[in-house]
Amino acid sequence: MEKTFDCLKMKEEIQAKIYEEIKDLSSTEVVAYFNKKSQSSALWQRLTGVGDAQKVVGAV
After folding, report:
1. For the whole prediction, is pTM greater than 0.85?
2. Are 58 and 51 contacting, i.e. CB atoms less than 8 angstroms apart?
3. Going residue by residue through the chain (60 aa), what tens digit of pLDDT does each one get?
4. DSSP character string of 1-60
5. Is 25 within 8 Å of 33 (Cβ atoms)?
């Protein structure tokens, strides 16, 4: 069976991208970065119901 997806490679690429985005930020800015990223994720929106509320407000 040929390997078509390399999970570790993907993880390392994502970590490298995040590092480049936050390497020059202060600790406060890093916290804000991760808060913003987590709250805009589909998982966060589903768990909190925020995404549904925004859809309803946007539709009105």
Report:
1. no
2. no
3. 788 889 999 999 999 999 999 999 999 999 999 999 988 888 888 888 876 555 544 444
4. ------HHHHHHHHHHHHHHHHTTS-HHHHHHHHHHHHHTSHHHHHHHSHHHHHHHHHH-
5. yes
